Amino acid sequence: MIDAFTLLVLLHLIGDITAHLTGLPIPGPVIAPALVVTVSTLVTLAVTALIFRLVARLTDPSEPAASDASP
Fold this sequence. Notes:
mainly alpha
């Protein structure tokens, strides 16, 4: 629980520093949740694409299965 709280405080600090350095009239926590949402969306898309490629490769009927290969 302390790890999660530390992460939240760290994100809050990063957002506050970003808002201060850029002069944006947006609160630091809003900049942090936006950054977190963007990064998590990109990671989710990448993992989904990798899983799709893996499943497509495993279910491709044109490639022989490993057990069907001749020695």
